[in-house]
Structure to design on (255 residues):
């Protein structure tokens, strides 16, 4: 009788253990939704090569076309896309897009953050305050009379995408999104990298954002970091390396 009772208890304990193990295994499934956020002076179409690789590898890719009228507007646009996903997402930001994902990444559906030659502000920091600390090499960013920013088309290739074909960058310069000054100066309130895992790609030949600033922010955030000899437009010139880092984040955020 005692033996039967003991066996029943062992069987019950094993059942609980296996159910917990099963729940953990389900939770550890790789994240399959990727949300891409572009930065200043470009638009979401620049993500096409990265998106094609990720889609081929079985990920669902969504691209935010944020208005860049203000940081708050861009966070709202990003959250709108995140909340359309059927499960957790990896949120990826290039350049200013890093500030957007730093704020939007607090949403519970965001499993991890990826910064591609991007800003990762702390609380009360903006792009303006970060650039003041460690300026980039470019002097080509101009302001319109109505307080929007643009990159001088004559310097676009050299300062934004020197390792991208000139014909492509000539069109990009003509079609660049002009952000508001408010988006440049607005501070982040609650940085998601303090509570979410993060990954970062440092573009070592970046003239738009100083590579040392990228390293500083990545180290401060505790990001898993790779360095690539790239211009600021790493999402174009090094799409396989960018996609590989995103896939690492998708796998790592499930752990």
């Amino acid at each position: 009788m005692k033996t039967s009772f003991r066996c029943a208890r062992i069987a019950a304990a094993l059942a609980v253990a296996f159910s917990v193990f099963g729940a953990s295994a389900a939770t550890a499934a790789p994240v399959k939704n990727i949300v891409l956020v572009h930065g200043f002076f470009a638009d979401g179409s620049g993500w096409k090569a990265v998106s094609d690789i990720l889609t081929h590898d079985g990920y669902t890719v969504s691209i935010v076309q944020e208005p860049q009228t203000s940081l708050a507007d861009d966070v709202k646009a990003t959250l709108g896309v995140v909340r359309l996903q059927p499960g957790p997402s990896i949120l990826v930001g290039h350049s200013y897009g890093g500030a957007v994902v730093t704020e939007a990444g607090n949403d519970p559906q965001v499993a991890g953050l990826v910064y591609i030659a991007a800003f990762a502000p702390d609380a009360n920091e903006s792009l303006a305050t970060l650039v003041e600390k460690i300026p980039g090499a470019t002097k080509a960013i101009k302001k319109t009379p109505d307080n929007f920013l643009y990159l001088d088309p004559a310097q676009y290739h050299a300062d934004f995408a020197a390792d991208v074909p000139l014909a492509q960058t000539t069109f990009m310069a003509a079609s660049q999104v002009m952000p508001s000054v408010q988006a440049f100066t607005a501070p982040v309130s609650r940085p998601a990298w303090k509570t979410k895992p993060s990954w970062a790609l440092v573009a070592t030949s970046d003239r738009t954002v100083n590579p040392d600033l990228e390293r500083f922010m990545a180290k401060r955030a505790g990001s898993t970091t790779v360095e690539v000899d790239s211009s600021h437009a790493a999402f174009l010139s090094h799409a396989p390396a960018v996609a590989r880092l995103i896939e690492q984040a998708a796998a790592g955020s499930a752990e």
